[in-house]
Sequence to fold (185 residues):
Amino acid sequence: MSTLAIPQTSTTTWNIDPAHATAEFKVKHMMIAHVKGHFSKVTGVLVHDESDRTKSRVEATIEAASIETRESQRDTHLKSADFLHVEKFPTLSFKSTDIKVADDGELKVQGDLTIRGVTRNVTFAVEGPTPATKDPWGNTRIAVSATTKINRKDFGLTWNAALETGGILVGDEVTITLDVEFIRA
Fold:
């Protein structure tokens, strides 16, 4: 009698903990300094294949209107049609398409990033996931930190103003950093 070997999978599902998830960005202002901001409403899910991290997948959604830069007039402008146009495009999203392990053990998570209705393929450098740990309420948690750089114009974020001294008010390159805790489903 022959038996068929059935591969065992060690896949677990993890939900982003919105209270412990931040999507931050920074962009040059007046060509001399960075303006930083963040989105406070981040949700999503990680399906983690513990035996082969490259078979994992992640999806995240960010509420565009949750943008904050510590300056209310700037926040209002960033929510307007000049930038995110939150009334027409209420969310930003990311869906992984490929995961590779770099030589240093860090993950390279490639996927489709959608901002303002425009989708482009980007790659995040990911630290983690961390080892699982129990929180005081009995939940099991892991965390990741991920970073990428985009050209905002690739996503239709083209508004700018020329400076009297030459140059532009808002830089094109935007650094995006995600610091996310997940709770095991």
